[in-house]
Please model this.
Amino acid sequence: MTARQPDPAPGAQPERGFITAVLPQGADADRELAEVEELAQTAGVEPIGRLVQHRPQPDRRSYVGKGKLEELKQSFREAGAESLIVDGEITPAQQRLLEDTLQTRVVDRTQLILDIFAQHAFSAEGKLQVELAQLQYNLPRMRGLWQHLERLGGGLGTRGPGESQLETDRRLARRRITILQRRLDALRRQRDTRRRERTRSETPTVALAGYTNVGKSTLLNALTDARVSVHDRLFETLDPTTRAFEHEGRRYLVTDTVGFIRRLPHDLVEGFAATLEETLSAELVLHVLDASASDDELDRMIAAVEEVLAEIGAAELPVELVLNKIDAVDPLARRRLANRFPGAVQISALSGEGLPELPARIAERFSERFELVRLLVPHGEGAKLAELYSLGTPIDEREDTEEGVFLRARLPRRELSRFAPYLIAETKAPSTTESHRASR
Model:
């Protein structure tokens, strides 16, 4: 599962996976394992059994304790599983021991998520990020590829080939990692350039953030008429998608980013910083919640999103809560949500219920950025007119007069001094005499 697997043929049986986890005393196994089971299904694996051990910390050598390891071996064999999924991060040594004991492939939480990412990365940058993260994950685990040579033992005829091949593979992997990092740095610089262009144009930028599968992509489609994939599965969106919508003559950019989950591995946050940067560069975060989730689920989702936002440095950004999937909530539950999240917009991106309120709420957040002004730009100063249009300023009215071009526009406040010589106070296009006076 460390690389993208081909899609199963129609009618083919999914891979059978067995799940194991070490949980603290008193933890609810059903609740704790629900997410990893959904992750497994998204990766094309059918969970057919599980074994949980309650202890403060995983065993350093074998992840589960010695006695539990024997129980795991028997349960795994009886279930007829093909792979073991560990709901946690395991060390190369733990992975190797489990694979030797069970004689099967062992996949931890990070590797499972990487496999899903590999299936859902379609852009060049997304594929580069997946390959980089996989190489960084696999580099310390490469020794396992040469166990057939190590089992020969030391002595005559066994020295050299295995170790030299292993070192060659590691050297090639490190070289590939360096190449990928350089390519991603180049793409990052291109994104920075695009962001500076957006900043100069004063176009407000909004990022959709939230737990995976809460309907962010459906919301993006509803707001902007985009056509991004909206399948009901985890991590359906990996590559960031930016689209625009207009409200009362103003243009806004909305970016849909990768969804968050509980315990998103730190290495993945690092590896996919380029994707998450789109959230960091936004001026407003729409934190999308699944209104149909239980109170406990909402608490866990909110905590997971806030944790990742803090890790990428986006915790200080303004946040607007959006309760999606409200069409699946009864009136009593809606009132409870309104009391719990006062001021949050309640919408259904699928049915459109409450949706018109959201663009208005976004516009209200940026209302102080623009001021409605009237300008008269003389015909001989076409360059200044071009500057005005380059800002992306919403133009409500334009009229060519004898003395110049009359415009009624929403000008960014910080640009008022720059266009001060062309500002006029009239509420309609001035007469020729008034135009001449205004332009002097």
Remarks:
- The longest strand covers residues 45-54.
- The CA atoms of residues 163 and 289 lie 51 Å apart.
